[in-house]
């Protein structure tokens, strides 16, 4: 259908982003290309929450041959976003009519967050597609009451949760949306999802230190959610009916749940609940359909203006500067630095250069990410880092931009103390989310 084709075209447009890749995609790329036994062993210690996705990518890379790695990495998200667009259009059609379905699909395809994650080598677009499918199956299960229909809903929602555990919040939104007579069956199905998901939950809980980087929501995130919520509530007031009852909980409940949990454990990241935009698109589509019946010309003009206003964002999303960093540019800048050794500050930034430059020694490294079956490798003790640094004349460091929090581990403290005390900075180059500095002994710049 036209919305899915539009989403597919938008996903393929500029998919390589000038050959750039940001740090999360670099993790996906590294994990997917590890031998299967090493991948499984790594997941036992970290990143199990993304394990199913890495397995999928691993299989794709095994059969992709000489295809462009960036295309292989991102194509599943492109196809998933197109599938999500088709499914949300079908939802809109079923709940509010053919024109509402068409407008819903077009709205979803044009949303900037959807365009962004349709081109990323992460699981979020796939989760979104599965939640859309589960939502469609839910309507059939409620309508028929058949066990087979509920089993289909269970299987699809469980798969979404196995790709990312926070998809379970979509199930809670579904439960809130349902009429009272259907809630018992839905609650039993969600309990069955939780039971099947529990081994992964237990395992990922032991790996919770991986999300310690998530801070409390900032003003920008709160304002963004407030804007989306206001838009959803406004559209729901126009549409009402079964569509609004399904869509509005999807918009509000998953994000609100994570925000309310933030004082206890900060877990809110907007991409974790990307599927909430399914509800946003449903409400926009239904509201536009209703308004077109009485105010066709003003609505068409306003819609055209909105689409044109989104064009700069669409163009920007296809540039390397649209992401937090660019590991391709960082690796290139490191190769061009005049130094024989490198130190990563902090160690997790080792993902910026997944393949070390020939002759450039990683001074703090003990075992590589692949050899240690970790994401970022393991490092030698602080005293050994100190000794290795002191044996060098010139070192290149890779650091976060100014103003970022500093890690307080003994290894990171040792790196900073030695470089600050015994070296001078010869020059710093800023490269898309990273600082690359050449340090030398006094007089050796």
Verbal overview:
The chain has 445 residues and is of the alpha/beta class. It folds into two domains: 2-319, no CATH class; 327-440, no CATH class. It contains 19 helices and seven strands. It has helices spanning 2-12, 23-32, 36-43, 51-63, 69-96, 98-110, 112-117, 124-144, 147-163, 168-177, 180-205, 219-239, 241-261, 276-292, 296-317, 327-336, 369-372, 382-390, 410-422, and strands at 341-345, 361-362, 365-367, 378-379, 394-399, 424-430, 435-440. The strands form two sheets. It has a five-stranded mixed beta sheet, sandwiched between helices. A two-stranded antiparallel ribbon has the order 3-4. Strand 6 (424-430) and strand 7 (435-440) form a beta hairpin. Helix 13 runs antiparallel to helix 14 (276-292). It is elongated, with a radius of gyration of 24 Å. The N and C termini lie far apart (62 Å). The mean pLDDT is 92.
Short synopsis of the structure:
The protein has 19 helices and seven strands.
What layout of secondary structure does this protein have?
Layout: H1 2-12, H2 23-32, H3 36-43, H4 51-63, H5 69-96, H6 98-110, H7 112-117, H8 124-144, H9 147-163, H10 168-177, H11 180-205, H12 219-239, H13 241-261, H14 276-292, H15 296-317, H16 327-336, E1 341-345, E2 361-362, E3 365-367, H17 369-372, E4 378-379, H18 382-390, E5 394-399, H19 410-422, E6 424-430, E7 435-440
Parallel strand pairs: 1-2, 1-5
Antiparallel strand pairs: 3-4, 5-7, 6-7
Helix pairs in contact: 1-5, 1-6, 2-4, 3-4, 5-6, 5-8, 5-14, 6-14, 8-9, 9-11, 10-11, 10-13, 12-13, 12-14, 13-14, 18-19
């Amino acid at each position: 259908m036209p919305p899915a084709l539009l989403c597919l075209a938008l996903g393929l447009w500029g998919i390589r982003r000038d050959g750039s890749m940001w740090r999360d995609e670099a993790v996906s790329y590294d994990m997917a290309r590890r031998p299967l036994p090493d991948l499984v062993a790594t997941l036992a210690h970290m990143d199990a929450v993304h394990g199913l996705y890495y397995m999928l990518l691993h299989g794709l890379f095994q059969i992709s041959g000489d295809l462009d790695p960036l295309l292989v990495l991102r194509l599943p998200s492109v196809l998933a976003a197109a599938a999500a667009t088709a499914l949300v259009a079908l939802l809109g059609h079923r709940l509010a009519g053919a024109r509402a379905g068409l407008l819903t699909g077009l709205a979803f395809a044009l949303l900037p967050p959807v365009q962004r994650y349709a081109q990323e080598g992460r699981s979020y677009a796939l989760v979104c597609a599965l939640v859309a499918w589960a939502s469609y199956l839910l309507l059939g299960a409620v309508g028929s009451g058949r066990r087979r229909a509920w089993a289909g809903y269970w299987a699809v929602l469980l798969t979404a949760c196995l790709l990312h555990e926070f998809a379970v919040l979509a199930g809670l939104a579904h439960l809130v949306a349902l009429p009272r007579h259907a809630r018992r069956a839905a609650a039993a199905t969600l309990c069955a999802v939780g039971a099947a998901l529990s081994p992964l939950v237990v395992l990922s809980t032991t790996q919770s230190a991986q999300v310690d980087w998530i801070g409390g929501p900032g003003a920008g995130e709160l304002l963004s959610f407030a804007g989306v919520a206001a838009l959803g509530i406004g559209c729901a007031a126009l549409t009402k009916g079964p569509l609004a009852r399904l869509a509005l909980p999807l918009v509000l409940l998953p994000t609100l749940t994570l925000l309310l949990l933030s004082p206890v454990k900060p877990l809110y990241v907007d991409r974790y609940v990307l599927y909430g935009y399914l509800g946003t698109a449903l409400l926009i589509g239904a509201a536009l359909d209703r308004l077109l019946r009485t105010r066709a010309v003003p609505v068409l003009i306003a819609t055209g203006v909105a689409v044109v206003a989104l064009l700069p964002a669409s163009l920007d999303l296809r540039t390397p500067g649209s992401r937090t960093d660019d590991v391709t540019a960082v690796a290139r800048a490191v190769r061009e630095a005049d130094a024989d050794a490198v130190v990563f500050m902090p160690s997790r930034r080792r993902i910026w250069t997944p393949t070390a430059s020939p002759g450039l020694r990683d001074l703090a490294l003990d075992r590589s990410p692949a050899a240690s079956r970790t994401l970022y490798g393991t490092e030698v003790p602080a005293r050994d880092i100190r000794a290795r640094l002191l044996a060098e004349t010139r070192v290149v460091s890779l650091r976060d931009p100014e103003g970022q929090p500093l890690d307080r581990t003994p290894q990171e403290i040792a790196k900073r103390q030695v470089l600050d005390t015994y070296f001078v900075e010869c020059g710093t180059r800023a490269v898309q989310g990273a600082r690359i500095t050449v340090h030398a002994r006094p007089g050796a710049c």
